[in-house]
Amino acid sequence: MPDPGLIPPKGHILPRTFYARPTLTVARELLGARLVRLLDGQRLSGIITETEAYIGEEDLGCHARAGRTKRTAVMYGPPGHAYVYFTYGMHWCLNVVTEREGFPAAVLIRAIRPIEGIEVIAARRKGRDTDGPAKLTQALGITGTENGLDLCTQASGLWIEAGEPVPDEAVTTGPRVGLNNVPEPWKSIPWRFRVQESAWRADPD
After folding, report:
1. pLDDT at 1 over 60
2. Phi, psi of 65 (to 5 degrees)
3. Fewer beta carbons under 10 A from the terminal one: N or C of the chain?
4. Could you give the CA distance from residue 95 to residue 136 in angstroms, rounded to a whole number?
């Protein structure tokens, strides 16, 4: 269960100190938080229900395994910034940078449960769900333009607010998705965190 002393009141933007901690802690405590996007003057948001942790150059499932490049430079920067990358030639994925500056680590936001702007989100997704990293970026209009944005301020148009803490009994862990060609232990390490919706439903208000 997240330590409430480290998280601001519900509805407040998560501060940089939240992200400047061990990546596994941040990945777990982002569950239940609210991802907010200001798009064309309208507020769209969803409760984060699934995350994955990627930690350092030694993590062979992490983009930083190749060291600092133009693509991964944001991961080496200050915590609390967005790392948005393009994959499979068609999809954008949103990550939040964690830990100390100079150490490449981030949390991939894999799924959200829409709360605000549901009609807009449904239209952008053509009625389909937001259970997947590329699906949620499409739903919220997040592209490479948002790479490097500061998530600790509303001025960026993209931020994360504290939400309802998710109890441990409602969280499952397991291997990260899509690392089929990554060697062990990185392929199977349980750095994926997921909310069991049947065991927990946050009050969106």
Report:
1. no
2. -60, -25
3. C
4. 12
Token output for 17: 């100190």
Instruction: Say whether domain 11-195 belongs to CATH 1.10.3210.10.
Output: no
Interval 137-154: pLDDT, tens: 999 999 999 999 999 999
Half-sphere exposure of 31 (CA within 13 A, CB side): 30
Structure tokens, 111: 């799924």
- d(Cα 35, Cα 33) in Å, to the nearest integer? 7
Cα–Cα nearest to 77, from 109, 35, 106: 106
Cα distance between residue 157 and residue 45, in whole Å: 11
Question: What's the pLDDT at 5?
Answer: 53
Write b or e for each residue in 47-69: b if 16 or more Cβ atoms lie within 10 A of its Cβ, otherwise e. Answer: bbbbbbbbbebebebbbbbeeee
